[in-house]
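Chain A, query sequence.
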Amino acid sequence: MQFKPLTPEQSQFFEENGYLIIRNALDPDLLARVTAAVGRVYERGLAEEGLNKAGAYERRDCIGLDDSFLELLDYSETVPFVPQILTWDVQLDTSHIIVRPPSPPGTSAAFKAIGWHRDGGIATHEIPEPLPRLRMKICYLLSDLSESGRGNTRFVPGSHLVVGYPEREEGEIDPIGTIEVTGKAGDAVLFENRLFHAVGPNLSTITRKTIFMGYSYRWLRPLDFVIQPPELMEKVKDNAVRWQLLGGWKSDMAFSLPKDEDVPLRAWYKEHGLDNRSSLDIEMDKMRPDDGIRRRQRIASLVTSRMDA
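Chain A, predicted structure.
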């Protein structure tokens, strides 16, 4: 995977707001191929399944449906930001097509195709707040969403740092500070799991097409698959980064105490000067599955030292 540094300005914006927009992220050729592939999946799904109750078509775990989707997995204009925001120990945890045709006539502006929520399923309710950053998504816009009211995603900037739900004034349909994310086809929107977001109605004549690639720490279960099929893993066997992102592993404790062969992105991380190792990283390097007693002693010693600090 090529390296694209996250600028200090981008990093600060993401940390403060919980999202980042990359304009013209997809090159015209890839945009055309991904859009055409999503269109084929949509037309087939529409014929076989129809729209869901919210008036949209969704296809999860779509990564293996077209080679153009696989190109998004480690796309050089966006994905290098993921390990810079999380770490080298990341995986794909969702690939998700969402198509929203125009809402029926008379649909209220207050309608929510998806209500206000944080990503992560039941974990957002089971983990005590303040929640940690565990995952992030990249949403690729495949339609012109340069105007509001086209089924745009809505964000509450800064709500990733809020305990509980963001404030809402009486009589208002959205929380204080809500924005509608606008952009053109080919733009990409990165956002983290704690950011409150929702989707309003599509009051335009445009069919809103998007594809999401989500990433999380490898020690988490993926959101929409358990393991990828052997034929897909075979396809990426010579691409170490894609292999890791799709859940590849080699050692017995690959997801709790990964070795270098389990996480090729670690070498990429170090190569580009991102390996600012903490004391815990150093201790992790010393651990091996065959020294359980000493490992527990080291962890206990480290935890004690941090409590005393």
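Residues 54 and 113 are 5 Å apart (CA to CA). Residues 302-309 have pLDDT under 50 and may be disordered.
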